[in-house]
Amino acid sequence: MVSENFNIEAPNYLSKESEVLIYARQDSQCIDCFQAFLPVHYRYHRPHSKDGETFIVLNNPDLLMYCDQEFPILKCWAQSEVAAPCALKTKDICQWNNMKYKSVYKNVTLQVPVGLTIHTSLVCSVTLLITILCSTLILVAVFKYGHFSL
């Protein structure tokens, strides 16, 4: 679940840090295990002048636990710390507890390829040339095979 004002198409330099809520499902093969899948979308980054890569650091997530009837083994805590939606498709707000856990890695760093600034004029020229060529081919096909009636 992503906030409503989240723009997936915004480039890196115009976007803000956002919050994503993932509701894990219990693993059918392990009673104490949960699975969650998160698709990753890299934002556009400006080209660099020297190397063709940039690094993105993903901080470790917060692990929130909601104590209800589905967790009969756990005793509910007296005070909950975080308010968040109860489920993916509801707008009801529940109180969640921020769990402490031991992470295998401190943070995850992703290496993302980016363009080089020295290629800017070449990329713009080729893009303009291909756009003109394709537009011309479309116009030729329309006038050659199109049936016009007034």
Automatic annotation (TrEMBL):
Q: Name one GO cellular component term.
A: endoplasmic reticulum membrane
Q: Name one Pfam family in it.
A: PIG-X
Membrane topology designation: Single-pass membrane protein
Keyword vocabulary terms for this entry: Endoplasmic reticulum, Glycoprotein, GPI-anchor biosynthesis, Membrane, Transmembrane, Transmembrane helix
Predominant cellular place of this UniProt entry's protein: endoplasmic reticulum
- InterPro entries recorded for this chain? PIG-X/PBN1 (IPR013233), PIGX (IPR040039)
Say if the entry is tagged with keyword rRNA processing.
no
Which compartments does it reside in?
Endoplasmic reticulum membrane
Q: In which pathway does it act?
A: Glycolipid biosynthesis; glycosylphosphatidylinositol-anchor biosynthesis
Q: Which GO terms describe its biological process?
A: GPI anchor biosynthetic process
**Residue ranges of the TM segments:** 118-143
Q: Which SMART domains match?
A: PIG-X
Q: Which family does it belong to?
A: Belongs to the PIGX family.
PANTHER family the UniProt entry points to: PHOSPHATIDYLINOSITOL-GLYCAN BIOSYNTHESIS CLASS X PROTEIN (PTHR28650:SF1)
What does the function comment of this entry state? Stabilizing subunit of the glycosylphosphatidylinositol-mannosyltransferase I complex which catalyzes the transfer of the first mannose, via an alpha-1,4 bond from a dolichol-phosphate-mannose (Dol-P-Man) to the glucosaminyl acyl phosphatidylinositol (GlcN-(acyl)PI) intermediate to generate alpha-D-Man-(1->4)-alpha-D-GlcN-(1->6)-(1-radyl,2-acyl-sn-glycero-3-phospho)-2-acyl-inositol and participates in the sixth step of the glycosylphosphatidylinositol-anchor biosynthesis. Probably acts by stabilizing the mannosyltransferase PIGM.
Q: What is this protein called?
A: Phosphatidylinositol-glycan biosynthesis class X protein
- The organism encoding this protein is Rousettus aegyptiacus
